[in-house]
Amino acid sequence: METVKIKVAWRFRAFSKYKPFSTMPPNQTSKKIFISTRQFVGDVGQLALGAVLCAVAVNGILVPKGFATGGLTGLSILIHNYVPVNLGLIFLFGNIPLFILAWMTVGRRFFFYSLVGAGFISLAIALVHVDIRLDDKMLSALLAGIIAGAGVGISLRSSGSQGGVDILSIFLLKRFSIGIGTTILVTNTVVLMLVGYLHSLESLLYTLIVIFVSSRMIEVVVTGLSQRKSVFIISPKWREISREILKDIRRGVTVMEGEGGYTGNREHILYTVVTLREVGDLKRLIQAIDDDAFVVISDTMEVINYRIGNQPHW
Hints:
disordered N terminus; about 60% helix; alpha+beta; Alpha-Beta Plaits; 4 strands
């Protein structure tokens, strides 16, 4: 076990010069607001598309069906019922500390694009009106969650967000590795509990369905295909497998020494991290070399490295 620890620690120290960890090569900087024209157009396009989808969910389903509202909007409505101030001003002032948080902890690029995203969502809700005719409230709640979650997720795949709770979720992800969907689910549920007296219990329960589905949809859109898998491989043909992973899949491999608990035999353990789309190729590669290889494939929450890392670029 001591040998394993020494080797693993040495591998990580070899990459310690690339700080802070990022999905970008170390010769690029993540502090630039505009990296390229293509990046700017792509980010603005994603923010606009995400805003339109959210507006479709709000104006096409949530408002006509009388579902409650969570997040900063729901909290603003709650304050508006007690304080005779324009609802838009309450929402604006509520966003100010969140945008300050974005500027101080996430970065200038995220701050700028979140301002653009907040403007897009306000404009889209005012202009986009779609009539979605569904009589079944359960189906309406499921569809609204899918559309809204896709909209927020697409916006978060850009360099910004739509403001509000989205900023808080990015901050918690970067600082404490708390999932974006988890933060949105928890904060929206808390707000719904506070505004519960304004709506019927039935409306609140349907809204909880919307929030749950949308939070899961956000996770799928933001991290679905970028998920990384960690793989442990134990095989007497470890040299061949290691060589083929480096050559064919082009991923790094760490070799660790171990010992069988029952047999006491010395073993070589391969450890690698691959993308979700590379798992199938890796399994076929291993089976072609050694059908009896012992393979463990596990999900990862975060991988921090500019080559294989899956941390967002905020």
